Fold this protein.
Amino acid sequence: MISGRDTERDGVARELTLDVDGVALAGMLGIPTNPKGLVLFAHGSGSSRHSPRNRYVAEVLRSRGLATLLFDLLTPGEEAIDRSTAELRFDIPFLARRLSSATLSITRNPDVRNLKVGYFGASTGAAAALVAAAEFPDTVAAVVSRGGRPDLAMDALGSVRAPTLLIVGGNDETVIELNRQAMAELRCREKQLIIVAGATHLFEEPGTLEEVARLAAEWFVRHLAPANRFQAKKSVNR
């Protein structure tokens, strides 16, 4: 079940609550006019739907005609536990279940239920996104990882069918190597590793996050947008 102002179509993200396996998770859903697809964000370690980096990327995606859902993978109580122990942010099966359940919940929304779904994952959230994508090969049509840890989803990588883009900062040497290892395990029909020169793990350097957003938008539009209507119509008339 979804509650909140979740039917706005002006591209501005509205607060909502997702009922995920009996747990209430806060989120923000933005739906532009005539959306081309829906992108769910899986945030990274110690982050939330308020992540300024993910919110910026979401704004860019909406400007390109993609609906976006940013939501908290953890409840406030779980976040408090994680701040002390850091145990939940690395519990990839747990985070993946939350993302999978949120996907089932949001795709019941009549405003987005007919859209192809993509995942944008950051840090450990990227691993959760890949595990969830492997679980829903007929639902998830594209995955983008920003500074992600796909190596934490190694057992699931061979089952991922969605086209997958891995984006890593050029100065994030350890994570570059981990992403290269993950690339070797992916068996999806299209995969790519892009290294953004001069960027560190959080892409805080001038212009680097903008490059991430541009790359992600192009990937999602290519794989989520419906076929050109004119071409489809022409094909039917033949």
Summary: The beta strands are 2-4, 14-20, 23-30, 38-42, 67-71, 117-122, 140-146, 164-169, 191-196.
